[in-house]
């Protein structure tokens, strides 16, 4: 009896193995067609997840609803989830499968997303339309290796000069020296995050340094800049900050609004991001002043500060089960109508050229200032991961009180900074 | 002679009182600052003076009512649930491991003790992505269960202090019980455990606090599932660039809400904690 | 010297004796440690040899059922009446094979190359297609998982052959093999350790050891920003990453070298760990002594003032401290009001020295309450007559602290000191939340002057995505910490006198 049982067991096990082998066939490709007439490429019963930042979430939900209503013959459900744009790329890289199908992200993350192969490019059928309706810069900044990787969503991810009109006049606001002098007269501070690469790149950029993309193996490329000129400009910044060391404070941009909101305001001006504009406007009311970045005096010539100008994009996750629907939605969300709505309701500057020319944008001081500044900017595109830390270090070298205001020192720091960004 | 001795004692005691008062003030002042500013009504994120000018409960009210984007009450409950479950499992795991290492003798014991000691020394965050994908293979990502597993899976490695404690309980007790016919299982539950209140409290306390403070692993596991966040990532989110300006005061209020129950619990159980850690942690 | 002799020494002699003993033992312990490692490998090889020998001899001596259970697990046990046990063995075998077929096999097959086609998009006849391709990271991770499971299965498989042979011998001796119930009972008594350790060992293997192996293996790949799955693959590169860590150039005009950064951060990490540990230990003990001094009233109040800070979650108190230490923060305001400083000081972000001092001081704020908690009890245990005799000899409080308290405490709390030293080497929270490594230095690669190795690792993975470099540095840190703690723990009394009560 026992022997029989044991034999039966053996047979059973062999059987299990064979069954197991037979069952293991699965396809690992994900197909989606794009038919001639159906923009969904034949997809139906579509569920999509969209990532939008907290501020834009409600509006995005409304827009998605409008999108669904456009296609009554399709079953579409869209879930909008709040996800900070700053973490969008890392959240997506963490697990593309559970991430959103359609997501909003700032331009500096594009390189990371493309490298890791998690973002689907803009499909050919949208290419002409997207290229023609958006600003040339926003399309250029979304292009790597001749491929446009995402739909431009905003044209204003940058910073500008914000000031209290009761302290700083429009004339003062034109020059850095004027702003600081006006602040000193009122005994109030000027705040800029000079130890952060996003802001401190102003110093070398103003001197003529530019980033021009990445080499094939991911090394950051620069233009053929004049080192002496860059150093002269760094020197001018350094000298200015040291002269006004009681007024100039390197601190988080959020401190601009905090300092202005106090009963006796401690801050009169600063360089702040477009995303904080509504808060500052609420604090200052009629005294809210917004302008492009000022000029700085370098060896007797007034040089316009050059900033880093970013864009926001809506991208499509390559792992999406409904690639065509996702592209269609991304296209819709970045269309003129949606961009205009965002400009009206949450003051996001459009990348769409028609929307950018509308009255809504023209009447918005902060947006105007940023658009004006965008002429004097280096596009935030193809930025290597190694860019930020060395650039922050250069910023510290320029502004810190303990550092000497010295051209040799700054030359060395600049060389180090460029070498470190290239990491070679 | 006696007088001067007494005088010296009074003098030294006075000095000590002054020192203790100053030090105590230094230690407690950040917490006082935290509490004061959590009631601050005016200003945005920060102000340039020490004591707020207007006090109100507004930050606390906002914290618990404005839950559309940052659902603090829900996160609080999540954390509580995770903390309770992971603390039960962790405590059991720690007691099981430390009892085996302290009282039972088997071949693999010594190597296991040594391996257990060094395993915890690897910087943890490199392994987080691996943990994430293991949980994903089990279909558990973005759930509270995953958090409970993460916080209690490695708990057994924290056996050292309670092993030290068990080492101090005389083995004669075990032997007597064995002679009376008790199995090792019975000895564990009926003899050792009732004597181990301090170390049990110590273990419960430390493993209960864990989930309230982790803000890295939890973020990776939860991803965009905001509903399953814990207070730690919630509070950290309030200090991120997106929310800092508008939510920093709420962050302060939230911190107080988190800190108060833990503090009360801690102060209540302090004596056990001290007893456990003294007996177990540092036995020469 | 026995304990009685030891107690007769004066405290100073005792201290010297202990220190001397400690350092005298270090070379011996080092030697013993490496001997132990050597012995481990020797035993391993011998053990494998013996195991194979036994395995073969069991097969030769086994009857048909035992022989069959070398292929179909559990047959031997079932044929001898141990039906449940046999079925369990079989179940495990079937489960393992199913796992390999449906999941693990595919990953193991690609383990050698970590994949050949990356995920990409193709346009086939106007249709957009995502070709899933391979994901090196998942191949590595699930490959390791499969290897670990295979190892576990192998152990069970050997146990199966042993069990079959044992059952055969029992039957041959004319006895009845033990039933399943008895075996379960044994698990609660003689094999109680198996029962107790099974669950923790399982969870630790899966969630600690397995990820650890994964991380160690990453150091031998080129997993970095240029090789990010799923879009591109990474592969094995041997020891290249380690040679990058040890490439020692001091920067010069070129880019910051990783080797230089590693050396600089190692130096600071050690300095930090020593200061953080020693200051917390001594200062904490002094405060504990003051609180516990005879004649001091309101002991509970004083202790509470300090201990409350332990209960507040560290990331809250440290983020708060970070705000308070900012140029416009509370501490600057306070110091200005008190007239200590005229101009704001960027405590965490001006000179490296100031930043380093600041983080060490803040760490005291964090750590001293723990020392108070831990040492209070032991301090009370120091025999009072020691102090009395010292006082009669005319020793003041300072003298008796250094001659009695400190040596006694050092003697008793060495394990705690080592643990907190290691803890400070890996003290991520304080640095990350307080200074985030700043101030920056152009000579350091992706690091600042207060970065510890452990926070550098974090930046390497988060900012520049040098996963392989981070893993390599992690391994080096681990080797140092593990060696240090294994040696010292096995040197201390607690390990030696473990059997005191048995």
- What is the helix tally of chain A? 19
Largest sheet of chain B: none
CATH architecture type of the largest domain in chain A = 3-Layer(aba) Sandwich
First CA to last CA of chain B: what distance? 40 Å
Name the shape of chain B in a single word: flat
SSE inventory with pairings:
The complex is a heterotrimer of chains A (424), B (284) and C (502).
Chain A: H1 2-23, E1 29-32, E2 46-52, H2 54-70, E3 76-82, H3 88-94, E4 102-106, H4 110-115, E5 119-120, H5 124-133, H6 136-141, E6 143-144, E7 147-148, E8 151-157, E9 159-164, H7 176-186, E10 189-192, H8 197-200, H9 202-206, E11 211-214, E12 220-222, H10 227-243, E13 248-250, H11 254-261, E14 267-273, H12 277-284, E15 288-291, E16 295-298, E17 301-304, E18 307-317, H13 323-333, H14 336-346, H15 353-356, H16 359-362, H17 365-374, E19 377-379, H18 388-399, H19 407-422
Parallel strand pairs in A: 2-3, 2-4, 10-13, 10-14, 18-19
Antiparallel strand pairs in A: 4-18, 5-18, 6-7, 8-18, 9-14, 9-15, 11-12, 16-17
Helix pairs in contact in A: 2-14, 10-19, 11-12, 18-19
Chain B: H1 2-38, H2 58-65, H3 72-103, H4 109-119, H5 128-137, H6 144-153, H7 160-167, H8 171-179, H9 184-195, H10 197-213, H11 217-222, H12 231-238, H13 244-268, H14 270-281
Helix pairs in contact in B: 1-13, 2-13, 3-6, 3-7, 3-10, 7-14, 10-14, 12-13
Chain C: H1 3-8, H2 11-61, H3 64-68, H4 75-79, H5 83-109, E1 120-124, E2 127-131, H6 136-172, H7 180-187, H8 192-218, H9 240-245, H10 258-292, H11 299-311, H12 314-324, H13 330-337, H14 352-381, H15 384-392, H16 397-425, H17 428-434, H18 453-462, H19 467-491, H20 493-496
Antiparallel strand pairs in C: 1-2
């Amino acid at each position: 009896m026992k022997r029989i049982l044991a034999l039966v067991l053996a047979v059973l096990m062999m059987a299990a193995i064979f069954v197991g082998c037979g069952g293991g066939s699965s396809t690992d490709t994900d197909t989606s067609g794009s038919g001639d007439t159906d923009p969904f490429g034949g997809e139906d019963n579509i569920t999509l997840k969209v990532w939008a930042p907290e501020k834009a979430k409600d509006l995005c939900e409304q827009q998605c609803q409008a999108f669904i209503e456009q296609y009554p013959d399709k079953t579409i459900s869209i879930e909008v989830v709040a996800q900070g744009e700053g973490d969008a790329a890392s959240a997506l890289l963490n697990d593309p499968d559970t991430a959103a199908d359609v997501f909003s992200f700032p331009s500096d993350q594009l390189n990371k997303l493309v490298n890791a192969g998690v973002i689907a490019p803009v499909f050919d059928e949208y290419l002409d339309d997207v290229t023609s309706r958006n600003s040339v810069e926003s399309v250029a900044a979304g292009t790597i290796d001749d491929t446009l990787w995402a739909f431009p969503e905003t044209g204003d991810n940058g910073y500008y000069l914000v000031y209290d009109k009761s302290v700083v006049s429009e004339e003062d606001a034109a020059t850095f020296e004027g702003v600081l002098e006006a602040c000193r007269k009122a005994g109030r501070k000027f705040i800029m995050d000079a130890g952060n690469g996003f802001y401190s790149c102003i110093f070398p950029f103003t001197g003529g340094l530019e980033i021009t993309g990445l080499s094939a193996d991911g090394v950051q490329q620069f233009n053929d800049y004049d080192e002496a000129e860059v150093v002269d400009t760094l020197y001018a910044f350094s000298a200015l900050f040291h002269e006004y060391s009681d007024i100039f404070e390197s601190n988080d941009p959020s401190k601009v609004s905090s300092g202005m909101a106090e009963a006796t305001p401690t801050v009169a001006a600063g360089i702040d991001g477009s995303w904080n504009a509504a808060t500052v406007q609420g604090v200052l009311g009629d005294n809210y002043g917004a302008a492009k970045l000022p000029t700085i005096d370098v060896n007797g010539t007034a040089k316009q500060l050059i900033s880093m100008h970013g864009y926001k994009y809506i991208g499509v996750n390559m792992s999406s089960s409904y690639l065509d629907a996702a592209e269609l939605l991304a296209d819709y969300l970045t269309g003129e109508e949606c961009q205009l709505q965002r400009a009206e309701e949450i003051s996001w500057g459009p990348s769409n050229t028609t929307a950018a020319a509308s009255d809504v944008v023209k009447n918005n001081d902060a947006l105007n200032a940023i658009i004006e500044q965008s002429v004097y900017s280096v596009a935030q595109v193809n930025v290597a991961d190694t860019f930020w830390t060395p650039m922050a270090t250069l910023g510290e070298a320029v502004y810190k009180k303990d550092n000497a205001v010295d051209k040799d020192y700054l030359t060395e720091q600049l060389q180090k900074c460029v070498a470190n960004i290239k990491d070679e | 002679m006696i007088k001067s001795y007494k005088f010296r004692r009074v003098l030294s005691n006075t000095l000590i009182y002054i020192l203790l008062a100053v030090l105590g003030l230094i230690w407690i002042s950040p917490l006082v600052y935290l509490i004061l500013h959590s009631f601050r009504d005016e200003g945005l994120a920060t102000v340039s003076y020490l004591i707020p000018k207007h006090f109100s409960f507004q930050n606390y009210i906002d914290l618990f009512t404005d839950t559309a984007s940052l659902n603090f009450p829900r996160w609080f409950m999540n954390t509580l649930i995770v903390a309770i479950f992971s603390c039960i499992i962790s405590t059991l795991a720690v007691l099981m491991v430390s009892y085996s290492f302290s009282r039972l003798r088997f071949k693999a014991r010594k190597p296991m003790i040594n391996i257990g000691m060094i395993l915890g020394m690897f910087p943890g965050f490199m392994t987080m992505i691996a943990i994430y994908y293991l949980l994903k293979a089990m279909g558990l990502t973005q759930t509270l269960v995953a958090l409970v597993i993460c916080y209690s899976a490695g708990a057994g490695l924290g056996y050292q202090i309670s092993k030290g404690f068990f080492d101090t309980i005389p083995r004669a007790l075990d032997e007597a019980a064995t002679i009376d016919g008790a199995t090792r299982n019975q000895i564990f539950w009926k003899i050792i455990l009732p004597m181990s209140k301090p170390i049990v409290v110590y273990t419960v306390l430390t493993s209960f606090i864990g989930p309230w403070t982790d803000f890295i692993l939890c973020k990776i596991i939860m991803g965009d599932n905001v509903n399953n966040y814990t207070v730690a990532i919630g509070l950290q989110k309030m200090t991120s660039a997106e929310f800092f300006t508008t939510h920093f005061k709420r962050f302060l209020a939230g911190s107080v809400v988190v800190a108060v129950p833990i503090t009360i619990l801690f102060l209540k159980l302090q004596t056990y904690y001290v007893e456990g850690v003294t007996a177990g942690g540092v036995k020469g | 010297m026995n304990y009685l002799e030891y107690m007769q020494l004066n405290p100073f002699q005792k201290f010297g004796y202990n220190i001397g003993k400690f350092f005298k033992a270090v070379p011996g312990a080092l030697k013993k440690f490496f001997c132990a490692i050597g012995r481990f490998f020797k035993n391993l090889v011998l053990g494998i040899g013996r195991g194979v020998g036994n395995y073969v001899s069991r097969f030769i001596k086994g009857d048909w059922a035992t022989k069959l259970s070398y292929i179909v697990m559990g047959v031997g046990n079932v044929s001898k009446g141990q039906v449940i046990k046999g079925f369990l063995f079989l179940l495990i075998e079937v489960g393992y094979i199913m796992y390999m077929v449906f999941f693990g096999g595919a990953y193991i097959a690609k383990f050698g190359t970590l994949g050949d086609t990356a995920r990409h998009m193709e346009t086939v006849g106007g249709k957009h297609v995502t070709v899933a391709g391979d994901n090196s990271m998942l191949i590595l991770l699930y490959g390791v998982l499969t290897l670990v499971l295979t190892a576990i299965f192998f152990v069970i498989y050997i146990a199966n052959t042993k069990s079959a042979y044992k059952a055969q011998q029992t039957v041959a001796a004319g006895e009845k093999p033990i039933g399943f119930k008895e075996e379960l009972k044994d698990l609660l008594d003689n094999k109680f350790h198996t029962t107790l350790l099974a669950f923790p060992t399982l969870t630790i293997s899966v969630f600690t050891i397995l990820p650890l192996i994964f991380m160690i293996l990453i150091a031998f790949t080129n997993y970095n920003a240029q090789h990010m799955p799923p879009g591109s693959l990474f592969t094995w590169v041997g020891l290249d990453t380690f040679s990058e860590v040890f490439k020692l150039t001091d920067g010069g005009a070129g880019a910051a070298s990783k080797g230089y950064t590693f050396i600089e951060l190692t130096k600071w990490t050690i300095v930090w760990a020593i200061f953080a540990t020693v200051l917390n230990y001594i200062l904490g003990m002094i405060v504990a002594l003051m609180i516990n001094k005879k004649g001091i009233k309101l002991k509970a109040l004083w202790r509470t003032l300090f201990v409350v800070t332990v209960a507040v979650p560290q990331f809250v108190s440290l983020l708060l401290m970070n705000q308070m230490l900012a140029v416009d923060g509370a501490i600057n305001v306070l110091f200005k009001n008190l007239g200590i400083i005229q101009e704001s000081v960027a405590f965490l972000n001006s000179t490296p020295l100031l930043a380093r001092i600041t983080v060490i001081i803040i760490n005291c704020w964090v750590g001293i309450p723990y020392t108070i908690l831990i040492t209070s009890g032991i301090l009370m245990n120091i025999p009072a007559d020691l102090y009395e005799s010292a006082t009669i000899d005319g020793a003041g409080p300072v003298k008796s602290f250094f001659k009695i308290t400190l040596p006694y405490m050092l003697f008793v709390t060495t394990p705690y000191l080592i643990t907190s030293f290691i803890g400070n080497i890996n003290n991520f929270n304080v640095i990350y939340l307080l200074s985030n490594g700043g101030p920056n230095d152009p000579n350091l690669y992706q690091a600042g002057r207060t970065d510890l190795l452990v926070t550098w690792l974090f930046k390497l993975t988060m900012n520049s995505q040098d996963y392989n470099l981070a893993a390599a540095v992690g391994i080096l840190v681990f080797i140092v910490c593990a060696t240090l703690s294994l040696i010292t723990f096995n040197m201390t009394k607690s390990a030696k006198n473990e059997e005191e009560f048995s």
